[in-house]
Design a protein that fits this description.
The protein contains 10 helices and 2 strands. Strands 1-2 form a two-stranded antiparallel sheet.
Length: 280
């Protein structure tokens, strides 16, 4: 199977997994986020481990998953927000643990253990807060009297993909001026503009169906995704260049790993969430 058809088939599976998971039901919404968060964290720890630094992978994963679970419960109103502070002793325990590992550069280990908690855990832990207590696109399976809409997340990923598609199609046909050649030689200004335009068109067309926020705000969200998402892609490329790898993983043939596929997500969604929180 050539690379184009492999990428296309894998891309279809990714769309089914993401849209199916987030759109189906609150439980599948939770599980989809859990898989994406855990996969991203694991890949990061594995990449850094292969570069010679030994982060605390298991404690880091446990802390990240705990943060995601507590965030989901808090967003659903099952616990108070103050319970998120339970993460603090877990962070302290990891720093104390490092004292006993006798690493040559212990603060490299601590830094790389903590970084995925910012890079992956915070973005995915904001997902539940964008769905619970929001009205808009309904889930495919009824979920009782819970006020819950996956509209923001479904729309977010549709716009991510629209931006990627526009950037790819315009980039390969018209791309001449490099966007950030030192980090990503293939990205062009023409592709970037193509992604912005297609994401904006899709946001306007789907805004009434998705609901949650107004069409104008969906248009602004598309601009945030196009701009910050591009930087997210570049930051992940910087990580790969600095560690000498081509892909973050091989779980998605033709697309790489979780970090490759969701690099735009982890950078742009916190800004989207901030915008919705203040202006939604």
């Amino acid at each position: 199977m050539n690379n184009f058809f492999r990428r296309t088939l894998t891309g279809a599976y990714i769309v089914i997994f993401v849209l199916g998971g987030y759109w189906l039901h609150p439980v599948s919404f939770f599980l989809a986020g859990l898989i994406m968060l855990s996969g991203s964290m694991y890949e990061y720890y594995r990449i850094i481990g292969n570069s010679g630094v030994r982060p605390l992978m298991i404690p880091g994963l446990v802390t990240g998953i705990t943060g995601y679970v507590l965030s989901t419960l808090a967003a659903a109103g099952e616990i108070q927000l103050k319970f998120l502070l339970l993460i603090l002793p877990m962070l302290a325990i990891m720093m104390i643990t490092e004292l006993y590992r006798k690493q040559e550069k212990p603060f490299d280990s601590i830094s790389h253990t903590f970084f995925p908690l910012i890079y992956s855990v915070i973005p995915f832990s904001l997902f539940p807060f964008s769905a619970y207590n929001h009205i808009g696109l309904a889930t495919l399976i009824p979920h009782g009297n819970i006020v819950f809409s996956p509209g923001i997340i479904v729309g977010f990923f549709l716009l991510i993909w629209a931006n990627d598609t526009g950037a790819y199609l315009i980039g390969i046909t018209l791309g001449k001026h490099r966007l950030f050649e030192r980090i990503s030689p293939k990205k062009s200004w023409e592709g970037f503009i193509g992604g912005v335009i297609l994401a904006a068109i899709v946001s306007w067309l789907l805004s009434g169906w998705l609901g949650v926020v107004s069409p104008v705000k969906w248009l602004i969200i598309s601009l945030i995704i196009s701009i910050i998402g591009t930087y997210g892609d570049l930051v992940e490329s910087m990580l790969k260049r600095s560690t000498g790898i081509k892909d973050s993983g091989n779980i998605m043939p033709g697309h790489g790993g979780f970090l490759d596929r969701f690099d735009s997500t982890v950078m742009s969604f916190p800004i989207v969430f901030l915008f919705i929180s203040f202006f939604g």
